[in-house]
Amino acid sequence: MITAQAPRMWGRAVHALTRRLGGPRQARVVLLLACVLALNTADSGVIGAIVEELRRSLHINNTEVGVLTAAPSLVGAVATVPVGMLTDRVPRVPLLAGSIMLWSAAMVVGGLATSYDWLLTSRVALGAVTATAGPTVASLTGDLFPHQERAGVYGRILAGELVGAGFGLVVGGNVAAALSWRFSFWFVAVLGVALALAVWRLLPEPGRGVQGRPAGSPRGDTEAAQQAVEESDVEPRPENVLAADPARMTLPQAARHVLRIRTNVIIILASAIGYFFFAGLRTFAMVFVQHRYGVGRAELSLLVLVIGLGALVGVLTSGRVADRLVRRGRIAARVLVPSVAYTASALLFLPGLLTRSAWIAMPLFFLAAAALAGANPPLDAVRLDVVHFRLWGRAESIRTILRMAGEAIAPVLFGWLSGLFGDGDQSGTGLDRVFLLALIPLLVNGLLLLRARRDYPADVASAMESERRFPAA
Fold this sequence. Notes:
single chain, mainly alpha, 18 helices
């Protein structure tokens, strides 16, 4: 009876998901772009799942494992600016599909590695092509979806990052246990080839600026924030109001402007710190959990699944909560929600890291992951609120450079400190202290964003005044 009803239940679930994503066409685009981000993070998830196998096979320590994760992020941070400029000049779908194919080739080469240097070289090449994902996904999202839908759509696309990391941890670890760590690389490489073909065949190439607004009209995705600021009679900061056409600004000029916006600087720092913690977590979580709680592969997969579900809940709900509060007149809700989220995440991770019971840790980690991931969608909306729309791309490049630098530093620092705190032991002995220490920056994030609530309304007003002076063509 259950077997007979399964296809019908599956069909209803797919129909409900498609409806929530805005219909078949929008669902297809959202899922493809989410899969691109998922593939981007699945790689680091695989590394996190096979730490023990890599250490035995290549005779390396935690610091060297951290370098394997850091290398793509560091190279990607450097490559983001030229790739972003290329994204603005060539068709984006072929660029994205070609980059995924090159990514898959790099994974295949990495799986053939017989030495640490070989594997590290393949990881460097991997970083150069993964730099394409951020700028192209952002550009395509802007032209494929209307302003009033972007915040919600972007939250669903960002969920791909979490799904990919969890997929890499669970599937990569199980494939490595059944076959070898090399097959974990090759498995995701095959998925990459399939995704590249799907992107090439199914993802439309939109015209640039097709979702543009008429001159002088408000931006749909920040309309609530703008209305709240206008009703409160907040004055713009003169030094943050543009005096020159942002479309004609060079990259250094644009960088100087966006880094004068106090709220923007704070969210860049907060985002970098948040991703710093997440990068260390996804690299060494499997090793930590195995040694801390003494669980087997099945229990480990269940714990990763629970944490992943918590993160998904957070990323899909926090943006809506912040937007609802803004519509009710809470002007600074988009910085207050992440402030509360980061603080709650640190306070929930703390008892989970201290206990030795996986069953006690599981619900705590679920809630902590929801809070940690839930900080990102409101912060992305803030970035749009306080920057002129013609500077969104370059502002994102600056944020991405610092964010990826944090992601590059974290695995190396976590690995080095684990050896230092563990007196040279490369197991999970030192990792418990490292994770506890890493909670401090999350608490700092909460305080940083509390500071931003005073600057945010004036910075939104400044962006609004800049857009009145230099509206869309």
